[in-house]
Design goal:
This protein is an alpha/beta fold and about 325 residues long. It is about 45% helix and about 15% strand. It has helices spanning about 5-15, 30-35, 35-40, 60-70, 85-90, 100-115, 130-145, 165-170, 175-185, 200-205, 215-220, 230-235, 245-260, 265-270, 280-290, 300-320, and strands at about 20-25, 25-30, 50-55, 75-80, 120-125, 150-160, 190-195, 210-215.
Length: about 325
């Protein structure tokens, strides 16, 4: 989710669910230790609960970044051991660390010693020629022994050579069963499942077997689905009941951020999938895609996009009548 789940995206998603745990995009230890921490780690308090996802392999660096994350107010530190990109592999983090469970365990132990908030790990079921029935269970045993509070498992292998990151999200077959078996082995340890879960109904089905469900692309590309999270999964009303209400609730945030110098498109790019099967949704997307990127674009562009959609829906209704 790099370059996707930034702070603007997370604020937008929080308007649709109070209860879902939100994750940052993966941030490398090097970026945090040597970069602009306020820009990289700053977030709106409305985003809580929110987890900081780290990419790295050096226990000392991971511990320091975890400590910094806790100081910034994050609710959880998550170590990414699932990303298969070449750039990530070159930095010796992400999915290639499935080959080094003891090193990951050392990193977890160092982070646990450095912070009081939960430390979790996100992994694959294996990489390359590994047998997942061996690799996943050995990896899980190592990180659990190190104190990992929860394990999030993307129920696919990662192929470190020969497949692009996009293909690694789609080509290796899903194996939910192995994650269910892992949970059965560790009934008192939180196991969260990830991969290919596109609807809240599918998430409900998984919750019969595991403790939690992580949704990535579906939540980003079709954010309207998040409106059902609180009512269906938590038995509570959503913060806003319609996508149109969400847009109106987002407007003060857009205006406040633009007053700080943020470009409109930095926020609106996350909203394009909010409406689905609604008359005028295409007009909404088109207006944002063409107007929000223009120099000097103001918050009025979002209001105009919503108005264009409402007008189109009204015209469609009149034609149908």
């Amino acid at each position: 989710m790099m370059e996707w789940t930034d702070r603007h995206c997370r604020f937008f998603h929080r308007l649709m669910t109070r209860n879902a745990l939100l994750y940052t995009e993966m941030l490398t230890t090097g970026a945090i230790l040597h970069g602009d921490r306020a820009r990289l780690l700053g977030f709106n308090t409305a985003e809580h609960p929110v987890a900081l996802q780290l990419g790295g392999h050096d226990p000392k660096a991971l511990a320091e970044c975890a400590r910094i994350g806790e100081q910034f107010g994050y609710d959880e530190i998550n170590l990414n051991v699932g990303c298969p990109s070449d750039r990530v592999q070159e930095g010796r983090f992400g999915a290639c660390l499935m080959n080094e469970p003891s090193l990951v365990a050392d990193g977890v132990a160092a982070m646990k010693a450095a912070v009081t908030i939960p430390v979790t790990v996100k992994c694959r079921i294996g990489v390359d020629e590994q047998d997942p029935e061996v690799a996943l269970f050995a990896f899980a045993a190592a990180v659990k022994a190190a104190g990992t509070d929860a394990l999030i498992v993307h129920a696919r292998k990662a192929w470190l050579k020969g497949l692009s990151p996009k293909e690694n999200r789609e080509v290796p077959p899903l194996d939910y069963g192995i994650v269910h078996r892992l949970k059965a082995k560790y009934p008192n340890w939180d196991i969260i499942i990830n991969g290919g879960i596109a609807t809240i109904e599918q998430a409900q089905e998984q919750l019969a077997h595991v403790d939690g469900v992580m949704m990535g692309r579906a939540a980003y590309q079709e954010p309207w689905r998040l409106l059902a999270v609180d009512p269906v999964l938590f038995g509570e009303a959503a913060p806003h009941t319609t996508a149109q209400e969400v847009v109106l609730a987002l407007m003060p945030y857009i205006e406040a951020e633009m007053a700080k110098g943020v470009r409109l498109n930095s926020i609106t790019r996350h909203v394009l999938g909010l409406f689905r099967a609604v008359p005028g949704a295409r007009a909404f997307r088109r207006h944002l895609a063409t107007e929000a990127v223009k120099p000097g674009a103001s918050a009025a562009v979002m209001a105009d996009a919503l108005a264009a959609m409402v007008d189109m829906a009204r015209d469609s209704s009149n034609i149908a009548a």
